[in-house]
Every structure is written in C-alpha cells, then in structure tokens.
Amino acid sequence: MAPHEPRILLVDDDANLLVFLAEQLKSDGFEVTTARDGVEALKRLESAWPDLLIVDMMMPRLDGLSLARQVKARADLPIIVLSAVDAGDSKAEALEEVAEDYITKPFHYPELRARIHRVLRRVGDRVPAGRLQLDPGLVLDLQRRRLVLDGVEVRLTPVESRLLYALAANLGQVVPTETLLARGWSETESPDPSYAWVTMRRLRRKLERDPDHPVFLETVRGVGYRLNRLTASSG
Q: Which of 79, 97, 123 is where one domain is finished?
C-alpha cells in the first residue's frame, strides 16, 4: 500500500494567510484541512486526526496555546506554532510545553515547508508500537506522551517525549548526546549539551523510583544515555 499524503490541519484566524498556506501546502503534496480558530479545529479533529497541526498562537474563542494543550492531552500529535510575538520566554514556553517547532511571523513559505518536513521526519523515526513496559510497575505510553509508574500517571512534555522516543527506539543501546540534542532541539542552532542534562534529570524524577540511583535511564559518561528494560514484557 502506498503511503498516504501527510495530513495537515492548519489553524489561523487570518483568512488570507490561511488560503495562501493551504494552496502552497497542497501544491507540495500535502492533504490540508483548515480552521479559523481553536473551536473549529476541535470539530475538525472529531472527524479526522492529521499527521501534523500548524496553529497560530493568537486567535479568538480558543487561542493556539489552549488548543495545543487540549490536543496534547489526547495524543502526541506534532505541532508547529505560528506567532507574531517574537518573545524569547513565550517561545521557550511553547516549545517546551506543546510544540515541536515555532515560527515567528512574518516568515517565508520555504522556511515553513522545510520545518514541516523536518518535524515529520523526526516523528517518523522507528519507535515502539503501543506501550512499552520497562518493569512490572513502569509503562511508557509514548503515543499519548505519558508514563505510568506504580499506578500513577505522569505527563511528559514534548521535549521529554522526543528524547524518550529516541531512547526507546534504541532500547538497551547508548544514544549519543548529539543525537538527543538533534531530536529534542532541532530548531536551535548548536544546542548546548546542558539542555540534555537538565531534561534527563527531569525525566529521572518522573520515571525512577530513586532518581539518585537510576536503573532505567542510565548515563554513559562522555557518550550519551541508555534506556534499560528490566522485564521481558512489552505492550
């Protein structure tokens, strides 16, 4: 069976930009559905789930950040945020909490197209299907961006989820820090290794019973990190 054209849900209250981007994306081989605000986008999601959501940050009725949070609560749908606000703090917040990438308006269409392809390539990496059980009390549900530790559900941020994707796809093998930086912060030129260190520390607090003595998320000094499974069971 031939792979389907990537499906994109494009959400923006600027009618002219919405029409322009939809036409450009369709001409580049994407299947595009549009919505004028977050409420309309949620209705679109009831009938079909896209491969990628592109959403404006500032919209009436339901803004882009609120929409993205609702979407991420349901599943780990990749999101690119569009915004006319070029604020470092809000950009960092959006990328950390809900978005795979962030583009400041105005922008050139080829830049958006390149970022779309990059995000779709990244999320298309080989990852475990369904749930991954690391031991009888720890289950990763990467599609829904969460883990369950001893019956308690813990949410993962997009960055945490992306790093776990890369680690889970190479279960039991060392993943270089450079690879994790490329997966987690592809929009950042020359990301600092401390980004990975800080995120790994947060992940250990979420998935290790004793974060000071980790057994699942192992540091291989000078190289990278390894995700270990302590059981033969997987979902």
A: 123
Q: Is residue 162 scored above 90 in pLDDT?
A: no
Q: Are 86 and 136 members of one domain?
A: no
Residue corresponding to tokens 């995120």: 199
Q: Give the pLDDT mean for 12-18.
A: 93
Q: Give CA–CA dist 132/116, Å, rounded.
A: 28
Q: Is residue 2 part of a domain?
A: no
Enumerate residues 6+ apart whose C-beta is below 8 A from 219: 200, 225
d(CA 48, CA 144): 17
233 belongs to a structural domain:
no
Decide: residue 2, CB within 10 A, 0-12 exposed, 13-18 middle, 19+ buried.
exposed
For the segment 182-225, what is each residue's pLDDT rounded down to a tens digit? 878 866 777 888 999 999 999 999 999 999 999 999 999 989 99
Q: In what order do the strands lie in the sheet with 101-104?
A: 31-35, 7-11, 52-56, 79-83, 101-104
Domain shared by 105 and 184, yes or no: no
Show the domain range for 145: 132-227
What does pLDDT average to over the chain? Answer: 84
Domain shared by 117 and 181, yes or no: no
pTM for the whole structure? 0.56
